[in-house]
Amino acid sequence: MKPRHPSTILLFVSSVVLLLILPACQTAPVSKPVSVKTAPPHPNTALIPVPQRAEDGLPPNAVSGFISRHQRYTALAQQGGIDLLFLGDSITQGWDGPGRPVWSQYYGNLKAACFGVGYDRTQHVLWRLQNGEGVGFSPKAIVLMIGTNNIGLNPPAEIAAGIGAIVAELRTRFADVKILLLGIFPRDFKDSRKRRLVTETNRLIAPLNDNRHVFYLDLADKFIDADGNIPPALVGNNPPLHPTAVGYAVWAEAIRAPLAQMLQ
What we know:
- By secondary structure, the chain is of the alpha/beta class.
- It has a single domain (45-262), classed as 3-Layer(aba) Sandwich (Rossmann fold), CATH 3.40.50.1110.
- 45% of the residues lie in helices and 9% in strands.
- The protein is built from nine helices and five strands; from the N terminus they run ααβααβαβαβαβαα.
- It has helices at residues 6-27, 60-79, 90-93, 100-107, 122-133, 156-173, 193-205, 220-223, 245-262; strands at residues 84-88, 112-116, 141-145, 178-182, 214-217.
- It has a five-stranded parallel sheet with strand order 2-1-3-4-5.
- The model is unreliable at 1-31 (pLDDT under 50).
């Protein structure tokens, strides 16, 4: 018998080894794909109605002031007889402070009320309306300005959504009301980040104007000079934020004509 060539023997052995290990390879467990957990979307806090709370970084005096003012405003709402309502944060609340003489001059003979609360954000106004301040009366006109306290905490798109939710809430509660939606007043120094965020937020809420129930009005040009600065005679604090008595007079005069039409 003629002996096999070494290469033939090697080929035969390789084939046998391959047949032995192939089943093991075929039945080896397949590793499962790694599950990657993504963080849930960040909720828009400007849309979630809540009262002022200490856990939101607000000082205790702000929270206690919120509670007392809310109770007072709820009682006023229940009394009815409000034709004109100013709604907002500390800038609106200032009608009961530096702006009081101007208020008496322009609105003293009207059935007017001011529901302004210092430190309020959009979510706080929503909560107030849903918890007593949005029932008991049927206003003809509402002057709404809110959002400056959300600046830096929410991006402009979220703040605009919160303001839109307030407008929708008012439209639901007061079907015949006309809303004078004011752009957030300019604040801080020229070219500051907060000034830019206010401008961007106002740009986003401007389309809420429908010229039927909602009338948007930006008064920035009344409070900024030709160099882009806010005159301290009109707006106090450093950096500028709250109107002075002169600033409230400028505000009242700027909205006098549109309010007169709304209250007819």
